[in-house]
């Protein structure tokens, strides 16, 4: 994952829930020296809230753009599915990486044009 | 018909001396080669249980190399075996996520952990508890999650059937070598089939994605767990990190950068799954197992004293009542007819 323009990352997840997997894997994609450049805030929830609280991921970039993701527990997702009448796709790790890299490409092009 | 032994002698006699010598020397060389091969055999020696157990008439393989479902020559099969034995033999396992730690950082963290363990070992030795000093067995290792997951299932859910008697086995017909009921090792087909349906059932399964490392402690010792947590996942009130003055090596940039990338996810204590808070709770038991035992003894003593007091109180009160009554009657100096057991005894 391209993290050149990433400035902040905050995530809340419960490691005992399957829906916290993507947020946890994003942390493992950061380069080894990322902690010196990026303000990383990780909140790990206890096992009791694995099925109740959602997992969130928030990324901040140099140009001020914020990206947010939210993964609901499976049970809640079913309720939402019933209310809205359509299935809601959850973002996969690939989607997160794709979106971050798309923004990276845009910022890089801007930087090249500027000088 | 003449006996064969004569024939052989006759043949040896008719053989030229050079030929017989060469034959003898080749036999000798064969014997020495066999001895050398036995000495440097790659096959592991059978275990004591294998040697004492009877060899079943149905087995068609060496007891040291049983046929297996997963190919034993692959590294991942041997990793699976080692993980199963790790899970079966280690009562306390802590699970960490490591996010791109450098080799220097790993080395520094392992060094600090070993130092803390050695320190605790020395203090245990000084207290005269040599058996409790298990610091050398504490290890931090990276695992392959995709292989660890089936190993966890085998260790948790696979209960090998009890060995049937050799007589029963003799009467049994086994269609293929793999269906031999005596094959119950971690790579066997019976283990594979038994845990196939348990995929995703274990509560630790959601944890087993991404890059993981295990801290294994050979015994459930809250003191060692606390010392390890103070190094690897310090938290202010209960598990403070060593101070700069006490342990300057801990505050090296390599250690601190590495620790920022190490996340405690959970633990497996004697087969039970704990989250971060549960792990800290186990580590926070004061005085370890001995402290717990002392607390229990103290509680039971108090309980016993209470019970004795309660049982005693009824008889004691009766005694006091009777005594007071006797004194009263004696003081009055009257002859008594009814209820005068005590004066009668005098």
From TrEMBL, chain A:
It holds the Pfam family MRP_L53. It is found in: Mitochondrion. Residues 74-93 are annotated as: Disordered. InterPro entries: Ribosomal_mL53 (IPR019716). The keyword Ribonucleoprotein applies. Keywords: Mitochondrion, Ribonucleoprotein, Ribosomal protein. Coiled coil: none annotated. Belongs to the mitochondrion-specific ribosomal protein mL53 family. This is Large ribosomal subunit protein mL53. It comes from Endocarpon pusillum.
UniProtKB/TrEMBL annotation, chain B:
InterPro entries: Ribosomal_uL10-like_sf, Ribosomal_uL10_bac_type. This is Uncharacterized protein. Residues 47-66 have a biased composition (Polar residues). Residues 47-73 are annotated as: Disordered. It comes from Endocarpon pusillum. Belongs to the universal ribosomal protein uL10 family. The lineage of its organism: Eukaryota, Fungi, Dikarya, Ascomycota, Pezizomycotina.
